[in-house]
Amino acid sequence: MKSKLITRLTLVFLVAEVALILLSWLLSATMTEGVHSLLTPEGTRWLVGHFSDIVASPLLVWLLLLSMAWGAVLPLVQRPSPVGQHREAFLIACAFLILYIVVVLLLTVVPHAVLLSATGSLFPSPFSRNIIPIGCLGVFIFTTTFGITSGLLKSFDDVCRSLTSGIAQCAPLFLLYIFLIQFWESLRFVFF
User: Fold this and answer.
1) How far apart are CA 150 and CA 52, in angstroms?
2) Contact 188, 36 (CB under 8 A)
3) Residue by residue, what is the 3-state secondary structure of the chain?
4) Least crowded by CB within 10 Å, which of 107, 143, 176, 188?
């Protein structure tokens, strides 16, 4: 059901991109002020020349890392085990997570911390710009530690498989992202 919704949304943005290309041409042909056509040499160069720059945004990195985190959590949730069977593994994973949180706190809350801005504030700062990757790394540490110590992840191959399974499950979102971000940037080029 969710996959069909994502597929339909992807189609909507594909059709919207084609409609925007034609609309930009029509509006520029009628000499509407402030409109740039995507079918002129300038527009075509922009459309082709900036595609990689448009797609390669922090949002793509966040989507990739969040899908990897989803893949890391999913095997541990899908294989329920009797309560207490993996208690030691859970406590070890919590200890590693707490250690990670302490390290992040030391890098952010103490005066003159490395991840603070030049003015010493938390927002905006290197920390605030990378909150999603920092959070995902915490999820990776917890799930990997729990999976290995509990025996649910028996090898490095299992760890890699759990991380990449999330990417495979979220693949339709990547396609939607590409069409959505391209449409948004094309809209900005045409009208702004």
Assistant:
1) 42
2) no
3) CHHHHHHHHHHHHHHHHHHHHHHHHHHHHCCCCCCCCCCCHHHHHHHHHCHHHHHCCHHHHHHHHHHHHHHHHHHHHHCCCCCCCCHHHHHHHHHHHHHHHHHHHHCCCCCCCCCCCCCCCCCCCHHHHCHHHHHHHHHHHHHHHHHHHHCCCCCHHHHHHHHHHHHHHCHHHHHHHHHHHHHHHHHHHHHC
4) 188
Could you identify the residue written with the tokens 């920092």? 134
Backbone angles phi, psi at 136, to 5 degrees: -65, -40
Q: Which residues, given as ranges, of the chain have pLDDT below 50?
A: none
Per the rule left: phi > 0, alpha: psi between -120 and 50, beta: everything else, 72 is alpha
Give dist(CA 180, CA 13) in Å, integer.
6
Burial 114-124 (b: 16+ CB within 10 A, else e): ebbeeeeeeee
What's the rounded Cα separation, in Å, for the pair 116 and 127? 7
> Backbone phi, then psi, for 80, in 5-degree steps?
-65, 140
Q: Read off the pLDDT of residues 47-103 as tens digits, 9 standing for 90 and up.
A: 999 999 999 999 999 999 999 999 999 877 776 665 567 889 999 999 999 999 999
| pLDDT at 80 (0 to 100) | 63
- CA separation, residue 130 to residues 135, 139, 192 (Å): 9, 14, 29
What is the pTM assigned to this prediction?
0.85
